[in-house]
Write a structure and sequence with these properties.
It is elongated and about 55 Å long. 25% of the residues are buried. The protein is mostly helical. It is built from 4 helices and no strands. The protein has one domain (3-117).
């Protein structure tokens, strides 16, 4: 297992816990920590994408990781402005959660594809 994948896994768990605490209310002070850990996850995802690209993994999966890494922080940083009303804001939160879980899944796929590519190269 490589270091960026381990970082994505650990950051993913931390982000889910922080996100649920923030979402349920009363823990708004955790938002900056959530954002910082989110940026760490994105950097680790991009590192995985780079390693996967170097190993010969298909550009589709690598490109998806790069795009998710761009979209997630933009959505996270602007979600309060996108839908200020609570009824609509819950949809933005769900989309943010779904994209975050997708990023973790893409990281796992990148890790597996990179390992398989390395085994074929031997």
């Amino acid at each position: 297992m490589n270091i960026p994948q381990t970082i994505v896994r650990a950051a993913g768990v931390i982000l889910l816990v922080l996100g649920l605490l923030i979402w349920t209310g009363g823990f708004g002070g955790l938002v900056p920590i959530h954002m910082l850990v989110g940026f760490v996850l994105v950097l680790a995802l991009w590192a995985l994408a780079y390693l996967a690209h170097r190993a010969g993994v298909g550009i589709g999966l690598v490109g998806l990781a790069v795009v998710l890494g761009l979209v997630l922080p933009i959505l996270g940083l602007t979600q309060a402005q996108i839908a200020p009303g609570e009824d609509v804001h819950v949809v933005v939160r769900i989309v943010h959660l779904a994209l975050g879980l997708s990023a973790i899944g893409v990281a796992e796929a990148l890790g597996g594809a990179t390992r398989r590519a390395a085994e074929r190269a031997r």
